[in-house]
Amino acid sequence: MSSSNTGLHVVLGAGPAGTAIAEELAGRGLRVRHVARGPITGAPDGVETHQADLSTPEAAIAATEGASTIYHAVNVAYHLQVDLMPAIADSILSGAERHGAKLVVLDTLYPYGEADGDHITESTPWSATTRKGRLRAELDRRYLDAHESGTVRTVLGRSADFFGPGVLNSTLGGAFFPPALTGQPALALGDINLPHSYTYIRDVARGLVTLGTTEAGDGRVWHLPTVPAVSTAEVHRLTEDLIGRPLTVDVLAEAKPYGPFDETFMREYAEMFYQHLIPQNMVSTAFEDTFGVRPTPLREALADTIEWYSP
Question: Which residues form the NAD-dependent epimerase/dehydratase domain (predicted)?
Answer without folding.
Answer: 11-214
